[in-house]
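TL;DR need structure tokens for one chain.
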Amino acid sequence: MAGNNKVATEDIESLFRQKPNRRIFTALPYLWLYNFGKRFHKPAKVQVKLENSDKKFAQLFKDNRNDIEKIQKLRKKKDRKIAKLKKRIEGNFIMRVMGEPPTFYDTLIGRKTAEEIGLFMQTKGFFDAKVDIKTKIKRKRIWVTYQISEGQPTYIADVDWIVPDSGVYKTIQKDIANSRIKVDNIYDENKLTDERTRIEKLLRDKGYFDFSRSYVAFDVDTNLVDSSGRGRKVAEVDIYISDPVNNTHKAYVLDKVYFHTISADQFATKRQKDTLVFYPKFAKRLAEQDTIHYIYEGKRLAYSPRVLYKKIRMFPKQLYSNTATIATQSGLLGLDMFKFVNISFDTTKRSFVANIFTSPLDKYQFSNEGGFNVAQGPPGPFVHFSLRNRNVFRGCELFENDFQFLFDGQTGFSSETGFYNSQEISFNSALIIPQLLIPTRLRFAFLNLNPRTRINIGFNFVRRPEYTRANIRSALVYTFQKNFHAFNLTPVDLSIVNTLN
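>> reply
TL;DR here they are.
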């Protein structure tokens, strides 16, 4: 491929329908393996087996036609057998898995690829682009080059917004600096898609609960003359944001937020439920309807409302925000207290109510594992036990305990020592608190990063012929998480090592 100066090569290469065989330097090992495996490929024999299998199963179906259960088993067995034989007709293991079939150039596919490259160049603003195919044949091999003539790009001369709803228009204009479509940039169809996504996200974070990208449309006019006098090809982009049929877009404000420790089905069927209204320290003067309502069963709420409050990002008297909804769901799931967290919104009765439904996980989670560890010496058995205790102090804490015993074969330092056995015992306990354990108001400064405090203490004992070692370690770790990135801060890490001999 040649001639593309402003469009990335990797974007165009993704359109190639035919690609050359893989190489390692100048060699073609995968093609060689395919040809090698082809020597042992006997498709005619496999075809005979396939036909015989069809006849065999047809007879079995006939013999057991009154036994429905047997027929079902035979049908599954036939499907597996036929699928296996059809795969063998395509090629043996070496051909299908290890090798790679040869790629033969197809002129029809080549012309189709050139057409698709031309259409792709138009989406990138090069409406006059041309693509020619140049080939070079040598020793039964062909080199194909797609020669691209980009031509003059089309620039965006003007962007007009046609938005009948004044509220939506004002919201968009406040964020116009983040628009993906900018004057004097080269026209790019992907930017239109990005802009549609940006508008949807912006409006759904500003209260427009019912808004979707289907309301956004574009009209591009390329039949214009460049008024700047620079002789460029230019286009005008009109962005339409239509209204719902016989209605306007509405910005919803949350009237109430309910947190349920029971599922939506249980909430709909069970009658008697208790409600707790939580007032945080920094908002004691809030009216009852302006804070979170916790709905639960039993004598009291199983979890600390203070901790739950810090994980919730949506509150009464605030505009609906899709980002806040996702952050609330992510924060609550990060506690590892609930099987699921579902958030629904009720727009009936002329109010906008958020319902956070959860289903608690089991308080205790136990797991065990055993097996053999194979290293240089004879295999050694090991066992591993772990116990997780949730909501230890009713503040969504996690108390984790791990125990492991390992009996392993090792190689000595000298030839005289030979093989010997070593034993290792380890025990670790960790208390995970879903907030920063800091005695100042600094612990409230990083709520958006889902902070955690981990207090860890562990013991490890190793016995070998050369030495016996005991190790005690404790640590205080602060964990922060943002999107898919996690950060650890370890202000305290103490370790005591005692080597006995």
